[in-house]
Amino acid sequence: MPIHLCPIVSGGPGSGKGTQCAKIVETFGFTHLSAGDLLRKEISSNSENGAMILNMIKEGKIVPSDMTVKLIQRAIESSENDKFLIDGFPRSEENRQTYERIVGEEPNIVLFFDCPEEEMVKRVLSRNQGRVDDNIDTMRKRLEVFTSLNLPVINYYSEKGKLYKIRAVGTEDEIFEQVHPIFAAFEP
Ligand code: UP5
Ligand code: MG
């Protein structure tokens, strides 16, 4: 699959992107590339940019596009697979433009997990996996950034007819029942 055709998975913090990506991977054989996971790996590898990335994540801010795109590209190049699922990126217009400038075209599937804020807050605060951004103060900032910077990107893809909006409440399986036919329709 050429890089410009990699499906994009979007949604607010705690909307269930990672959980649903795991199911898509299992069923359709994609390699999951979570931009947040790649950034967290960069922090734990003690890279020169680790401290800057950690500060941005603690504040719920968006890391400079060049850095995230570089990590995504590196992960794609080092994989044997040719099908990738990009989770949690692009999350601003600047992210989107940087990414599209590099890959040359727009994605053809953009999933959007639409989840009420109070449900996202509840999920994130009960996750308990030691993420530095899973606290109420950072969560408020993540939600603000999502609304002001990420939603315009989602609206952009909607206007382009690329957006598949999923109602991200209910059980994980109920949500996957909405996701499955979208990917099945694109299978060769
Ligand atoms: N859960 C999942 N589905 C559920 C369901 N149906 N019912 C009940 N519970 C459900 O799920 C969150 C929690 O909810 C889990 O405990 C899960 O079991 C439960 P998850 O699948 O992890 O949701 P997800 O949408 O992946 O939430 P996440 O917290 O990862 O979303 P964010 O978008 O906030 O986090 P991400 O890792 O993408 O980014 C973190 C930070 O990195 C950003 O804030 C930003 O600072 C930085 N970043 C960038 O700067 N640039 C990027 O491109 C990407 C990230
Ligand atoms: Mg995630």
Account of the protein in words:
This protein is of the alpha/beta class and 188 residues long. It has a single domain, classed as P-loop containing nucleotide triphosphate hydrolases (Rossmann fold, 3-Layer(aba) Sandwich), CATH 3.40.50.300. 55% of the residues lie in helices and 12% in strands. It contains eight helices and five strands. It has helices spanning 17-28, 35-44, 50-58, 65-77, 93-103, 117-125, 136-159, 172-186, and strands at 8-11, 31-34, 84-87, 110-114, 163-167. The protein has a five-stranded parallel β-sheet, with helices on both faces. The mean pLDDT is 95. The structure holds P1-(adenosine-5'-P5-(uridine-5')pentaphosphate and magnesium ion (MG).
For this structure, the CATH topology is Rossmann fold
Task: Name the structural class.
Answer: alpha/beta
How are helices and strands ordered from N to C? Answer: EHEHHHEHEHHEH
What's the helical proportion of residues? 40-55%
The mean pLDDT is: 95
Classify the oligomer.
single chain
The backbone outline, from C-alpha atoms, is globular
Write out key terms for the chains shown.
single chain, 188 residues, alpha/beta, Rossmann fold, five-stranded parallel β-sheet, 8 helices, 5 strands, 55% helix, globular, binds P1-(adenosine-5'-P5-(uridine-5')pentaphosphate, binds magnesium ion
In short, what is this structure?
The chain has helices at 17-28, 35-44, 50-58, 65-77, 93-103, 117-125, 136-159, 172-186, and strands at 8-11, 31-34, 84-87, 110-114, 163-167.
Structural topology:
Blueprint: E1 8-11, H1 17-28, E2 31-34, H2 35-44, H3 50-58, H4 65-77, E3 84-87, H5 93-103, E4 110-114, H6 117-125, H7 136-159, E5 163-167, H8 172-186
Parallel strand pairs: 1-3, 1-4, 2-3, 4-5
This protein binds P1-(adenosine-5'-P5-(uridine-5')pentaphosphate and magnesium ion.
Magnesium ion binds near residues 17, 18, 34, 36 and 88.
